[in-house]
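Z., the sequence and structure:
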Amino acid sequence: MSSPHTTRLVNPRLGTYFGIFASAFVGLFLVLLILEQLEIPRQHLKLAVLLGPLILFGGISVAASTNNSGEFFAAGRRVPAVYNGLIFAVTTIGGIGLISLTGLFFLIGFDAWFMAIGIFAGFLIMGIVISPYLRKYGAYTVPTYLSRRFESRSLRLLAAMLFAVPLILLLAGELAIAVHAAGELTELPHAVIVTLLGATITVTAVLGGMRGIGWVGTAQAIAALLAVIVLAGIIGVIMTNLPLAQLSYGPVLRHIARTEEAQQITGSLQGLLAFTLPGPAPETLSNRIGAPFGSVGATSFIMGLLTVMMGVAAAPWLLPRCATTLGVYEARKSLGWAIFFAGCIIITLSALAVFFRAIVMSELVGRTQAQLPSWFERMMADGRATVSGAGPELPLNAFAFGRDHVLFAVPEAMSLPDVAVYLVIAGAIAGALAAAGATAFALAAILAEDVYGGLRYTTTTATARLHTTRAMSVIVLLLALMFNFTISSDPLELFLMAIVLSAGTAFPVITLSIWWKRVTTAGAAVGMTVGFTLATLLIFAGKAGLVPAPLPTAGFTAALAGAISIFAVSLLTPVPKRAAFEAVRDMRIPGGETVYDREMRQLRFRERART
């Protein structure tokens, strides 16, 4: 009997559903724009902007709830490539990328591109080297894949413990940036904001699992994409008479360069291992926007790019999405869509940064403090910007801007309606929630499947596994909220630390386990341990000032040391069993049933036969 074609498994109304959501999201802001003109109090508008999207996300979470194990852990393996690619892009960039990367483009210009290029290269490497084979294997978590690949329960526990650390760091960073964005929007107490955002993520992860994270994440990605694209289109029309700001800001950039040259603004060329990124506090504008290596040295730029590439390609919070597509071909295709959507977002953010630099050059530089515009005075009053000096003509380096406030300052500086500012903030919150939700569920699945399940010598029922993961999701979110209440850290630094640990710990072992059959269990364990330990030590040494360029050096060095350790130990230990070679061979065959599903089905049959 022939099986139906896999495309019939895809809901044909998905486009309609997300079209309705996009229309509702846009309609909400059009209504609020009308209410703003009717002089409705701003507090009411801000509250509607915060609660409206959260209610929409909650409704989608309820609609996507499921008790089916395959749907809960892998979204039924039927997510279309375009939606999976959109989730990949927004989950990777997240709220930290939307907010902090815009500030980096504005403050240090060219040097911020090491992150952007690293993300693009990471998707490319994931799509060619890793994603298709993990999709064929079909494991729900990366430690589960490693345990099946090497037939080792202890390796599974080791991988789960090591991979949990970057997941915790990233979850804390995304929650922190979401709370920061919500604080820009509303005057609600910090505890209320944290509770609202945490409840939204918890409901999504608990009710629908990967299915809920997928469909709610798609809606959140659409909201984030609409926010930045619409804002860039409006400002592009105002400044260049063209709505495609991504393609039309070249003349604006050349005008800024000529103005900087006329005002004799020269950026100093830093050393090869220099790596100075702006923090959350206001930073002065001392570098030319198009001049390279004014904050990040040439060697650090390359090592940072490679670190981000490896960290994204082997990210434990991204790779589980490979198991949700229809097949191997769709897994590759989804990474192509991810590169497209990530490119649209990042180029849009760079355009917004260039436009804001042009506004600063025309409205601030060369004026006295008494002549500064009202939007900058509001930023100074809120502590988002500062100015130093009292000369008749203020230079560029007299002004300082907070990195995480630049994105929200762009529509305000262009004198757009307040609702336009609220739209950008809502998009940033949506992006942060998408990344935080995916990270929280990945961490909960690792704790439930690989830590709790890995300690058991008998398999559990699908219902028990589902309930355990739901309980772990609640525990993970509670711990993340407690972390947010007690510890204050730079979200961008937490993101980069998570990327460094992912690059040093996960990338060598995942890549070599796919492409080198000779890798042994001992080699994999030693490689992960060496990479994680070295990356951690270099991060702390960098904080103490003992190592230049701590984050790029840590990621690149740890990944290299991990790969060398895997090669050396594997060659010194006995050849793996035949089952390991057969697992790699099955994983490299693109069609047919996934290896994990086949193994679980055979295991259930054996247990039924024994009972």
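The radius of gyration is 24 Å. The domain at 77-491 is CATH 1.20.1730.10 (Sodium/glucose cotransporter).

Let me know what you think.
H.
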